[in-house]
Amino acid sequence: MPLTTAYLALGSNVGERLEQMRAALRMLDAASDVSVLQASLVYQNRAIGMGDAEPFLNAVVEVSTSRSAEGLLDLCLLVENQLGRVRTGSWAPRTIDVDVLIYGEAEIESERLQLPHPRIAERDFVLKPLSDINPDLLIRGRSVDALLNALPLVELELYAGTLLTPNS
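Now predict its structure.
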């Protein structure tokens, strides 16, 4: 199967957040059919809609893969499971969250997967790290930077300048 470039969002707001994100990145990169190409800086933001939950750390990684989009989703779910994610609801704290944001130029609407991610244009905590990697990437005809600039300013901060890398 030919290689496809995809973008994944990583997030955590429970426990050793940065270490869990690094572990997820190492697990993704260890898969024989996935290569991590680059990773964004790590950002921190408040946990939206979760009361007084701990803040989230968020980053985006660019990968190259021979997996199908659903195969990549399966790997993301496996990584989450192996790192102890328990699904208790959409707006619940999580040890790790790994979402497929973009898979090549694919537009997919299935029960399991919607691509590009349906809420990508609403989430500065996804767009800002994605902008670090590829600000000119087009999503439904608009660049990542244009989508980011259209959002209101929120509380998103660089997390100690930490660069997420596979060998971290």
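The CA atoms of residues 6 and 103 lie 4 Å apart.
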